[in-house]
Design goal:
With 455 residues, the chain is α+β, with helices and mostly antiparallel strands. Helices cover 45% and strands 20% of the residues. The relative contact order is 0.11.
Length: 455
């Protein structure tokens, strides 16, 4: 391997021209021939016994070149990047320049780690929400407990919205029962919209023991056999039930919690809500500070670096889905998405993560932050306990350099946040001679999500 030219390009990329010698390429071509000759039929020769020159004469001298190049260039690329001392942070773009018996030459556009420049990183300011919990907030926290304790009680009156009608029903298409149109003692919550449109509205007003026919037209987007059809359901109401909420008192508190009184239960709900809101306010403040840090950064980020991070996000997301028993292709089908749409939705989050990492790396460099051996061992022990595995398994799963890098970035983040102050976000600085931008109407587009989520 020989690097014949090195040229810096825009957005933190470097173009290398790399030459692979004839003997190296010849060895790769021979290797490909030996691997593939068993699959090539040549008249006059037993399968797998045709000489290479005969095959090349039939199919062309370059019949094995593509596979040979693919076999050789990754190692040649890695060697060239190492020789030039480049910090490769993304997938290279390859272009074959020349290929023949003399070897081959290719160009590689390398994404290199850019150097971020920060205007400031200490004393940043951002607003922090003042957390309050009202009695109305606690009432909202109580609602799920009340709903779970609510019971359905039989009533002797006409059914109304919000009731549950216990019904027998059978559907007829031109007088003939149709498949799936029959049910007995079915609990139908009136107003929930869980049945065919128009059905629940016609059950409202019926009493226990009452029967009647209900005319229904199925929606056009219903399944093929019934889409758009006018049918008749014969319905009998067996029972009408209304929801009966419990008395919210000390006895209720004893039933649904570990507390003896309602006041104690409400107090605990309030404290937990306060803690959640304070944690959210703290997280929002820290995120706002880190966003300011990124906004004050000057850095040309190579596209390859963002693409690599997007791949990591996609892989992590696929693993999370798989842990729920949902293959990625099945999830995309359920959501009506393509792989390209999934990548597009993940890319904003990937860019944000890359920006934050570069900014914090610049802080760490400016402050001379490092991770000690003691801190590394403490992190190994922490992860081992967290995942209930041995320290040796942690070390095998996570390279020491990666773990120390994460520790340094964490230190940098803590330094930036600990020096930050609550207050208004500073206005963006206006460069000298910069004109106020004119307002323009942009075509409304759908904002891509930061990260896809499984339902």
């Amino acid at each position: 391997m020989k690097v014949t030219s090195v040229e810096k390009k825009e957005k933190s990329t470097v173009e290398l021209t790399i030459q692979v010698e004839a003997e190296v390429f010849e060895a790769a071509v021979q290797k490909v021939y030996l691997k593939n000759r068993g699959r090539i039929n040549v008249p006059g020769f037993r399968k797998g016994k045709a000489p290479r020159k005969i095959i090349e004469g039939m199919y062309g001298a370059g019949v094995f070149y593509e596979d040979a190049i693919n076999d050789v260039y990754p190692a040649a690329y890695d060697e060239a990047v190492k020789e030039q001392g480049l910090d490769d942070v993304g997938y290279p773009k390859m272009e074959i320049v020349e290929v023949g018996k003399e070897g081959f030459t290719f160009k590689a556009l390398v994404s290199v780690r850019p150097e971020a420049r920060l205007s400031e990183y200490k004393g940043l300011t951002a607003p922090k929400e003042e957390v309050k919990v009202t009695e109305q907030d606690i009432d909202e926290e109580l609602k799920p407990y009340i709903e779970r304790a609510t019971r359905l009680v039989s009533v002797k009156r006409k059914a109304k919205k919000g009731d549950t009608a216990v019904i027998d029903f059978e559907g007829f298409d031109n007088g003939t029962p149709f498949e799936g149109g029959k049910g007995e003692n079915h609990d139908l919550k009136l107003g929930a919209g869980m049945f065919v449109p128009g059905f629940e509205e016609q059950v409202i007003g019926m009493k226990a023991g009452e029967e009647k026919d209900i005319d229904i037209t199925f929606p056009e987007d219903y399944h093929a056999d019934l889409a758009g059809k006018a049918v008749v359901f014969h319905v009998k109401v067996n029972e009408v039930k209304e929801p009966q909420a419990p008395e919210v008192d000390d006895e209720f508190a004893k039933d649904v919690s570990e507390f003896e009184t309602l006041a104690e239960f409400r107090g605990d709900l309030g404290e937990k809500l306060q803690a959640r809101r304070e944690a959210q306010a703290k997280s929002d403040f820290e995120n706002a500070i880190l966003e300011q840090l990124v906004e004050g950064m000057e850095c040309e980020i190579p596209d390859g670096m963002v693409e690599s991070q997007t791949d990591r996000l996609m892989d992590d997301y696929a693993m999370r889905l798989q842990s729920q028993g949902i293959p990625m292709d099945q999830y995309m089908s359920m959501m009506g998405m393509t792989p390209e749409m999934m990548r597009a939705s993940a890319k904003p989050a990937a860019l944000k993560q890359v920006q934050t990492e570069l900014a914090l790396t610049a802080v760490a460099k400016a402050e001379g932050l490092e991770a000690s051996a003691e801190e590394y061992e403490a992190e190994v022990a922490k992860l081992a306990e967290q995942y209930n595995i041995s320290a040796e398994q942690v070390r095998a799963a996570v390279p020491e350099a990666d773990m120390k890098k994460d520790l340094v970035l964490r230190k940098a983040s803590e330094l930036v946040i600990s020096s930050a102050k609550e207050g208004k976000k500073p206005a963006a600085k206006k460069e000298a001679g910069e004109e106020k931008p004119k307002r323009t109407r942009a075509k409304k587009t759908e904002e891509p999500k930061e990260e896809p989520k499984a339902e």
